[in-house]
Amino acid sequence: MPRFAANLTMMYHEHAFLDRFAAAARDGFKAVELLFPYEFRAGELKARLDAHGLTQALFNAPPGDWAGGERGLASLPGREDEFRRGIDTALDYARVIGNRRLHVMAGLLAGDEPGETQRKKQRDVYLHNLAYAARAAQAEQITILIEPINPRDMPGYFLNRQDDAQAICAEVGAPNLKVQFDCYHCQIVEGDLATKLRRDMAGIGHIQIAGVPQRHEPDIGELNYPYLFELIDSLGYDGYIGCEYRPRAATSAGLGWLAPYLEAAR
């Protein structure tokens, strides 16, 4: 039976952020995820989770200057010290909050060298930084995640494909480094989701969903999510499925798709 986590960064915008925990719990969610927790004290977030019986399923490591357009540090040459400090901060939060999944964003392809030369340089930095993050997280029993992101939503993002992400994890060789499989991004870049889920499930550490192409609720668009949920169950995935979508209107009003799964869980 699939278990769903509400993404509080993208959902429940009709509520102030700290009130979104209560709203998600009222709607039947048992877990939440979010992009970045760092505007708030870790203890404050933990108190909200505990008050509403919620598990924190996922958050991201610091991404650099997000407001300035940066989208992660892990592949950026010359930013290694800042990356390591960010991992330390993220792990400090995870210890308090109880989070066991940490997404590390790769960053944008940068530099003035020819494309393949720059990509190789950044890939080397990426592998080195991911190995560091995995070692630092292993003692905390935390899984580091990398996510292929489509270039339509995030032009220039370093990592776009599932096979590349799986190859990077294999090359690093850390048991707690896995791929965050976002169905929305994968459909836009590659399609053929069922085949990729079957092929890669052993290396998948977290799954996210949204309707394609507009990133609304998963009951509209070109993906057959009931079929995919059954497949994911049959493949033995026991983690949370993150609802990383933008509701068409009020979040609670758009949760009709979730009701059958909540009822079955009861």
From TrEMBL:
GO molecular function, one term: hydroxypyruvate isomerase activity
Domain (Xylose isomerase-like TIM barrel) ranges: 21-259
Active-site residues per Swiss-Prot or TrEMBL entry: 147, 244
GO biological process, one term: glyoxylate metabolic process
Pfam families: AP_endonuc_2
UniProt keyword annotations, A-Z: Isomerase, Pyruvate
InterPro entries noted in UniProt: HPT_OtnI_isomerases (IPR053398), HyI-like (IPR026040), Sugar_Epim/Isomerase (IPR050417), Xyl_isomerase-like_sf (IPR036237), Xyl_isomerase-like_TIM-brl (IPR013022)
Gene3D superfamilies attached to this UniProt entry: Divalent-metal-dependent TIM barrel enzymes
Family, similarity comment: Belongs to the hyi family.
Protein name: Hydroxypyruvate isomerase family protein
Organism: Paraburkholderia antibiotica
Lineage: Bacteria, Pseudomonadati, Pseudomonadota, Betaproteobacteria, Burkholderiales
